[in-house]
Amino acid sequence: MNRLVLVGLLALAACATQVPGPAFTGSVVSVVSAKSYDSHRNVASEVTSSFSPTDRQIVLGVTLQGYPAGSRCEFVRYLNGKYLDHGSVPVKKPTANTVFFTWTLTKPGVSHLPGPYRIKVFVNGRYARELTYFVG
Question: Which of 86, 87, 115, 118 would suit a FRET pair with 74, their CA atoms being 20 to 30 Å apart?
């Protein structure tokens, strides 16, 4: 084989291994806050953006579509504009999937802190959506 052709083929092979595959694009279908969720039907119940400090739980439901299994859905939560907490869960199925984050009152006499909350939702480290709710 001609030496020049061989060098050209090796250069093409090197380039081919460095070209990334197509970027996978999923979507965040919806983000809701609610007072509860039905784990059997995988849906949020009592959807609202207003909570009492004594509501037993506050639920964030994020419905995803098209992300591969193993992706991560993450949230960052703010209260009165200041960082409060964060968390993440893995996406278990590559089909439409709703993941839930829940803040539950577990001890008597404890309540949710009053004020405006903002939650930023990320999937695989990329910003997806935002949600606000109020406790008062």
Answer: 115
**Spatial separation of the C-alpha atoms in residues 23 and 47, rounded to whole Å:** 33
The residue ranges of DSSP E strands in the chain, in sequence order, are: 27-38, 43-47, 50-51, 57-65, 72-79, 82-90, 97-104, 115-123, 126-135
Tell me if 11 is assigned to some domain: no
Residue 33 maps to a domain = yes
| 93-132 confidence digits (pLDDT tens) | 777 688 999 999 988 889 999 999 999 999 999 999 999 9
Rounded-to-integer distance, Cα 100 and Cα 105, Å = 16
Q: With respect to residue 58, please indicate whether it lies within any of the assigned structural domains.
A: yes
- Could you count the other beta carbons within 10 Å of the beta carbon of residue 121? 20
Number of domains in the chain: 1
Measure the CA–CA gap between 78 and 85, rounded to whole angstroms. 7
**Is 16 a domain residue?**
no
